[in-house]
Amino acid sequence: MNWVDLLIFGVLIFFILDGWGKPFIFELMDLGGFVLSLLLSLKYYNLAASQLENLFSLPHSFANAVGFIVAWYFLEIVFFISVRLAFHHLKTKLKLPADHFFSIFPAVARGLVFVSILLVLVATFPVKPQIKKEVHNSFLGSAILSETYRLEVPLKGVFGGLVSDTLSFLTIKPRSNQRLALGFQTTDFTYDSQAEMAMVALVNSERVKVGLKVLIFDTSLREVGRSHSADMLTKGYFSHYSPEGEDVSDRASQRGIDYSVIGENLAYAPSLQLAHQGLMNSPGHRANILSADYSKIGIGVANASDFGYMFTQVFSD
After folding, report:
1. DSSP of 157-196, one letter per residue?
2. Averaged over 203-222, what is the pLDDT?
3. How far apart are the first and last CA of the chain?
4. Beta bridge partners of 297
5. What are the residue boundaries of the SCP domain, all occurrences included (predicted)?
6. Which residues 6+ apart lie within 8 Å of 255 measured at CB?
7. Is the pTM of this model over 0.85?
8. For a FRET experiment, which of 53, 186, 238, 260 has its CA 20 to 30 Å from that of 139?
9. Share of the chain above pLDDT 70, in %
10. Dihedral-angle region of residue 301 (phi above 0 means left; psi in -120 to 50 means alpha; beta otherwise)
11. Nearest residue to 65 via CA among 73, 87, 262, 116
12. What is the DSSP letter of 247?
């Protein structure tokens, strides 16, 4: 048992206390309304989201998240009022001898549904790996997750865009000595060769559009890019310069690469498309991609799972 188990236990105690003393039939109806409003909100949140998007000019991903919450609370209120109006006269008629005891069961069920949603969000979206590990190592957390992972897909539909927008696109000007802190460090990443080649294709597609020659993929330059992407994730920074003060020219020279001109683009993003579009929308990075001075390219992509992708493009003649 760890702190996650204690937290879950505390939440369940809260729901038990909230339901204690209420007639069993009302607590049972509350459970039904709670679950039904959740399911309806997951299915029809887009209707509320589209209205919010049109009325308040909200970003689509943010409108989805707010639309889901608004729909869930609205339906909860509707069910709450409807149950109490419909069964107002049954409060005494249906009171059971052990009402206080029986009301615990639907209250615990409501608590479990609430906890399940929180755990799936923690397990699915970008959260510190240590917290994820604690959830998976907890007795109650792991048991609940094993039964409720089916919620992952609908919840990703609601909150996935918001998470991607929050992670967003991060870059830094070419040849700038600026340094940004990522806010995390991780060695839990893999090199994504498929994403690397897909990005090379995207870069060459942009060059062809303006009449430039395609760049030749170079494995040595790729290794320079991979090592820098890995270094940034491992040490938790984002910069063209390593903590030791080395830039792309130093990293290339250390690998015995000959060049007259060399350049580097960096991007940190939740997806390949977002990274490429962000670089093309940045004048300095676009200039590197569309430079006639370069004939070779190597791209190192480190996939850090929930933390996103680190991209390092290296160009040379």
Report:
1. HHHHHHHHHHH--EE--TT----EE-S------EE-HHHH
2. 93
3. 58
4. 217, 315
5. 201-315
6. 220, 223, 224
7. no
8. 186
9. 85
10. beta
11. 73
12. -
